[in-house]
Every structure is written in structure tokens, then in C-alpha cells.
Amino acid sequence: MVKYLPFTLLLAFFLIPNQNSAQATDPQIYKIIDSISADRIESDIRKLAGFGTRNTFSDTVSQTRGIGAARRWIKSEFESISKDCKACLDVFYQKKLVTPEDGSRIPKEAYVVNVVAIQKGTKYPNRYIIMSGDIDSRASNTMDFETDAPGANDNASGMAGTIEAARVLSNYKFENSIVYLGLSGEEQGLFGGEGMAQYAKDKGWEIIGILNNDMIGNIEGVDGIIDNRSFRIFSEPTPPNETEQERNMRRFYGGEVDGISRQLARYIHKQVETYMPEMNPMMIYRLDRFGRGGHHRPFNDLGFAGVRIMEAHENYNRQHQDIRTEDGVEYGDVVEGVNFKYAEKLTAVNAINLASLAWAPPAPTNVEIGGIVEANVRLKWEKTKDDIAGYKIYWRDTTAPQWQYSRFVGNVSEFMLEGIVIDNYFFGVAAIGKNGHESVVVFPSGTFRK
Ligand SMILES: [Zn+2]
User: Fold this and answer.
1) Which residue positions does the secretion signal occupy (predicted)?
2) Separation of 408 CA from ligand 1 center, angstroms?
3) How much of the chain is in helix, strand and coil states, percent to nearest 5?
4) Sign of the C-alpha dihedral computed for residues 274, 280, 284 and 290 taken in this order
5) In the chain, fewer beta carbons within 10 Å around the N or the C end?
6) How far does residue 73's CA lie from ligand 1's centre (Å)?
């Protein structure tokens, strides 16, 4: 991606002095990137791997081994971060009982316990942007809760990144709430995410999105490719719980690749290209890896936006494997397989998106589009009562993966783009704060006529 570097820098340079441009860069974002520490991430990964196994059904009594010791340590880390920011984090366990009837990978009854740390927003405390990693790990056999399963990359890396993001972002104040989440029961069937997503729904949380981090530390693929720049953002095309009517609307008005999770993925991609041009973010147009699962899915199931952030090159010898050597090949998810500098980069990817979204105003609601048999396209939306800079219309070719064109249109609730034909592009609208931070782009959910 080095070849794109000069162009991106040039773009960023020209955007800075333009007050009307919505994507003026924010120096605080660079400061956040610089504050994320590979050393602290390394130390946390070593600590987590040191609990021997973090299988969901492992020991909960020991102070040194098993998932109980691991979650108590994670909770105490969040509590000590909170102490340093005048109790800015609300830290608690969220749990749910599972029994063998709940799934084929549940050997015995146990509580699936998540660790939650919430940094309350100053203006919109009920609007949440979430970063998650997993507490649990597994050996070759998921049902085996005794054998060592350090899970250094899967997924101590995501957990350590989440803790590190909390350390850095707790030094700032945000308008929206940020949740730092340690989820359990992932390897047994996504039970922690399921419990937490339901908890959020029951509490009436307005979720901006969840950035689920699952394996963010491996740079050496099983095929030998080494790459410390690329990473993947997985997002499903459209929400699975949409109505038959919404599905039918899409046939006539488009939106096959414009669901809420996809818009979140585009947001992350754009932030990274703006602020971390040395990285190569890959938008993957699918829920997750082929036939595989992750903890963003239970959130998607309930209609929340959510993506999976992960390394680009996986090493299957280091995933879900007992530690052993066979025919000269080393197996096992050990600390030596983690690149801490890369985990630092992907943690920064999360942190800058959490910050920007937590500083952004609420996305526009009731976005509608008009312009059938006209030379121009018109968009309208519900204006917020809040004091914001205004709105920005985005559009792109129907075959383009990323928004290509945009226009800041001021603090209005309707706008016509002259000479732009509705048939030839996809459109969306974002809200822009006075601080320059933008909401996720909203794809129209309705149409109107003159
Ligand atoms: Zn796994």
C-alpha cells in the first residue's frame, strides 16, 4: 500500500485548512494513535496466556489458572484504569447460565461471564460504540477444559487491545458512551456475545456499532506470507432481521451492499486511510470468514451494526491446537506467534474509530431519496435539534466499494444535487459535528416524490 501513501498524505494536507470540509483531520486522533503501546499489549497478552487455559468451562476458583482468574484480572485492570481517570469507567460482570441443552459444545452447566467497562458519554450516554475482544480460549478439543490453551492470538490479542484502548481513551471525554467488552463463551458457540447483545437490547441501548476484535496479532500466514500492514474488516451486506417489505424495497431501490454493518466498515476503512495511511485495510464483503463465526454476529442478529476486525493472514497451526510438535511442525497458540507491534496498530485502528464515532453527532434519521424521472437527485432527513455543523451527502458509482463523492450541504434537512441522476449512483447522508467528526453514513430507507 506504500504506493498510495503520497496521494493520501497530499489529500490530508489539503483538507486541513478547509473549514467547510467535513474531513478536516483532528490532531487528537494522531495523539491517540501515538499513545497506544505495544509493550503494554505484550504484557497483557503474556498475562492472559499465563492463565494456562481460559476455556469457558475451566477452573473458576484458582487465582492463577482458568477462566475465573482471567476474568477477575481483566475486571481489576479496568478498575485500575478507572481509578486513574476519576472513576470514568463503570465496570461490572454480565453473565448468563448455559447448560448442555443449549449447544453441542457445552460439556457442563456454567456461567458465561463477560466483563463490561463503560465510559459514559457526556451528551448522549445512551448511545454506545463498542469494542470487544474475547476472554476464552480453547485446546484442540473445545470440550477439553483442562489442557493448556494459551490462546495468545485467539484471542488474548483482541482482549489486550480492548484493555489498551480503554487505557488511552479514558484520558479523553466523549459525547457518546464507549464500551470496552471482554466476552466469554466464544469458542463454545458465541454465548457471551449473545448474552451481551440481549442485555443491550433489554436496556434499550442505542448502539452505533460494535468493533469485534478476534485475532489481531498474527502476521505470518500458514502459507508463509508475512505482512504487517494488511488487516480485514468483515461486514455482512444487510441486517438478517430485516422485514420482507425491506427486502422487497431493495429490489427496486437498491441497497444490497449498503446495510448498517457495511456502512460501519466503510467508516473504519476511510478513517484508517485518512489517519493511518501506512496500513492496508481490506473490506471483506461477508459476515465473517467462510463458514466461521465471531462475536459480532449475535449483535448483527438483533439488528445492531457490527464488524469483525482481524489479521489478514491466518496461521492455522497456531489456532485451536494443543501445544505440540508433529513431524517437525510446531502447533499451538503461543505468545511467540504474536507480533505486538501489529496488535498495537490494529488496536489503534479501533481506538481512532471509537474516538471519532464517540465525538460524532447522532447519524441523521428518516433519510429519504427522491428524483425518479428527474435530472437531479434530492435527499431529505430529519434534522437534529442539537447544535451541529450540518450534513454531508455522499455518493458513489453503483460498482464502487467506497463512497467516492461528497458534498457538505450545511445545517439543512433537504438538499438537491443538480445534474446528478438517481439511477447511476448510490447515495447516503452523514451528520457532521462542529468538531469535524462525522457519523456513519445512512443509506436512505424511504423515497419521496415532488
Ligand atoms: Zn477461536
Assistant:
1) 1-24
2) 43
3) 30, 25, 40
4) negative
5) C
6) 21
144, three cell numbers = 477439553
Q: What is the DSSP letter of 137?
A: -
* CB 341, CB 160: distance < 8 Å: no
Q: Identify whether the C-beta of residue 273 lies closer than 8 Å to the C-beta of residue 30.
A: no
Grid coordinates given for 250:
431493495
Q: How far is the CA of 293 from the centre of ligand 1 (A)?
A: 9
The DSSP letter of residue 373 is T
- 228/161 Cα distance (integer angstroms): 16
pLDDT in tens, the chain (450 residues): 444 444 444 444 444 434 444 457 999 999 999 999 999 999 999 999 999 999 999 999 999 999 999 999 999 999 999 999 999 999 999 999 999 999 999 999 999 999 999 999 999 999 999 999 999 999 999 999 999 999 999 999 999 999 999 999 999 999 999 999 999 999 999 999 999 999 999 999 999 999 999 999 999 999 999 999 999 999 999 999 999 999 999 999 999 999 999 999 999 999 999 999 999 999 999 999 999 999 999 999 999 999 999 999 999 999 999 999 999 999 999 999 999 999 999 999 999 999 999 999 999 999 999 999 999 999 999 998 899 999 999 999 999 999 999 999 999 999 999 999 999 999 999 999 999 999 999 999 999 997
- Residue ranges of domains in the chain, CATH in brackets: 25-359 (3.40.630.10), 365-447 (2.60.40.10)
Distance 286 CA to ligand 1 centre (A): 18
The pTM (predicted TM-score) of the whole model is 0.94
Compute, in angstroms, the gap from residue 350 CA to the centroid of ligand 1.
Answer: 20
310, three cell numbers: 482481524
